[in-house]
Amino acid sequence: MHHDDSRSETVTLRIHRFAPRPQRDRDRARGGSPFARKSSPFGDSGSRSARRTRGKQWVQDYQLEVRPDDTLLDCLLTIKREVDPTLAFRYSCGHGMCGSDAVAVNGTPTLLCKAKVRDWIQQLPGAAHDDEGFRRTGDVDDEAQPGTPKHPVDAPSGGTIELAPLPGFPVQRDLIADIDSMLEQITRLKPYLIADGTLATTVDGKVDVFEYLQKPEQLAQYETLTTCITCGVCEGACPVYAGGEAFIGPAALINQARFVNDSRDMATAQRLEAIDSADGIQACQSVRACSRECPVGIDVGEEIWQLIAKVKEREV
Ligand code: SF4
Ligand code: FES
After folding, report:
1. Which residues pair with 173 in a beta bridge?
2. What is the CA(170)–ligand 2 centre distance, in A?
3. Which residue has its alpha carbon closest to ligand 2 atom 1?
4. Region Disordered: start and end of each range (predicted)?
């Protein structure tokens, strides 16, 4: 069937907005030291809610002429430029490389720049695809690519897409989540190669190559994990992490697995020890929602499962 993807349609973007209280009101409300922090083995993994900023929340609808192949980032940029310059969202690369634009679309964490209107538009139940390629509610492929909708809800005709900040993180403003807790947890786990410092030398003792050499099959053990863009989508999809439990979260565990699986890294024992705690890998309930949403296709749940096996092996 021929689809004319240039045809536009009016869509409602239903956006969950948030404006923080001015800083001086926040300082007054806090009433104590601005440096006070709750403590936990992973610093903030159990105190994400403590960072929550107070402010005003509301839901705002924007009607927009869009094409099926427009991304949700395209839509937000149009709103920002032509309709409402106060709308706040974060993005950088615009094509799935930087991981800065994760939000919840129709309740599912995904990247704005990878999400196409055609895949997320929702209409009244029972409607089908039209000839122009717009997807209708109830018409969701089981074999959908990562990032396609899985939670359609009722919506007025004309089509609605609901956008909210990434679950599991405090909101800074509108669609911008504060992901510092995730980045701090990753940093705490030493996200760099800890090699033994022995470089290949020539017969006369000079350094031959400033590289730690590795066979292709050794690289294959962790190469996929290096593609993680630290977007936090897996964390937002995880019912344990996004549910507010004390949990270091799947993104930090994937980062740790990347080095545990690297033959050049000499800190495996310390790395496994570091995550073996009640709010570390023990908090993972193997729900595997993290795998369904990863925009780069890492099977997050399976990787964590293998990491759990390594932690257990070391205990016997
Ligand atoms: S594992 Fe995937 S979903 Fe999780 S932070 Fe990395 S790229 Fe994002
Ligand atoms: S803007 Fe960089 S991943 Fe979407």
Report:
1. 176
2. 20
3. 94
4. 1-56, 128-157
